[in-house]
Design brief:
9 helices, 17% strand
Length: 283
Amino acid sequence: MDSVTHVLMGHAMGALAAAVSPEAGPAVYWAAFLGNSLPDVDVPLSLLLRRGIQLHRTYTHTLFGAAALSAASAFVLRAAFPGTALAPLFVWTLLGALAHLAVDCLNLFGARPFWPLSPRTVELGILHITDPWILLLLGVPAVGAEAGVLPARWVGASFAAMWLYVAKRHLTARRLLHGLLRAGSLRARVVPWFSSWRYVAETPHTVEFGRWRRGRRVVLETFFKRDDPRIAASLEDPRVSQFLREAEYPVALVQEGEVVWIDALRRLRADFRPLRVPVHVEA
């Protein structure tokens, strides 16, 4: 998720922690608050190592990484709040970090939380990386409580409300997916798009990309499966073999002098780049 969402989640969860563990004082607020942004320490670290953002959503976005970071942060927080027990600081920091991993696994980018035991990427496709309803659910109580126009308890409650919204999104995604399959798609994928939905559906002859409008499917693009010697020639390129292993909905577009391979699903990600393969076979 975007950084603002993680900060608002941390604030809401921190308020909840302070209400649940009042004996720990403000220390548990800061534990939960920091924990919600802790895994994203890989971004400045990657920049310092001049790796761009290649380390993002790697080591720190795992259960082992979250536990290690939470343990280190708990010691720092205990030094900042003398007399506070180490255990609640570790627990709330870890819960915050796990909440961060959970929402990151709900969007199209995903994470590998079980690495190194499993390299599997978990990306459930329920939330867009920026969801306006989550920003409102978390942001309005935070601002309202700070301004004194809403009860402070609403801030902690907004954290629970966010997960109810996530559950609703999950049920909606399942309903839309079943509708696509009942309509004759061989396979399909529902994709979050801010607070609405897009979809990718494969039929025997096409791959279709579209959205819903007032409960009805609207086709935005249709990619036809073609028997073309230029596409066959492009398969000899080892890069294509690698692309086909990684792509979920691969599509070949024949253009002048080249075949462009795209993934009808992954191209929605900001980091997606099509694979362009020059070919010299006459159609």
